Amino acid sequence: MVLVSVATTRQLVEDFALIVSTLDGTGGVSLVTASGDEVPLPEALRQVLSTAARAMSSGQDIIVADKDRRVTAQEAADYLGVSRPTLIRILDLGEIPYERPRNHRRIKLADLVAYKADHENRRAALDDLLTSSGDLEQYDTGEFVKTRSPEISPTTMPAGSC
Prior knowledge:
The chain is mostly helical. It has a two-stranded antiparallel sheet with strand order 1-4. A two-stranded antiparallel ribbon has the order 2-3. A two-stranded antiparallel sheet has the order 5-6. It has helices at 10-23, 43-57, 73-80, 84-92, 109-135; strands at 2-4, 30-32, 38-40, 62-64, 70-72, 106-108.
């Protein structure tokens, strides 16, 4: 697995924009070796490079890995942006399948990517729901809701009832 992180500069953004426009062009794309030989770039690889260059030009990190690759719990936690103990709780709840050869948990990268996408979709749906309920002003009445009856207060409660 290769993790590529790029610090975005103005020049780098311009360079990536040129690369993306070249890769997204209608003609074929070739690599030129040091000896001057041209090697045509297969369409599938052109698409991968275009997607990676587009992401990197906006300052995003990219990961290039085989989808069947298994990652460690720490690598998975880093990918999700959570602590290792939080990831272990997620695994123990069965939200992400994993294997446990010997004492180490191994998670398929494809399962991790699917979980992250699903989690982001659920979070976006919840945000939309909260935004739409806020637009309807269903929860903002401006009134305080009393949770105790007025005749029972901490000072009038019988001893030992807390």
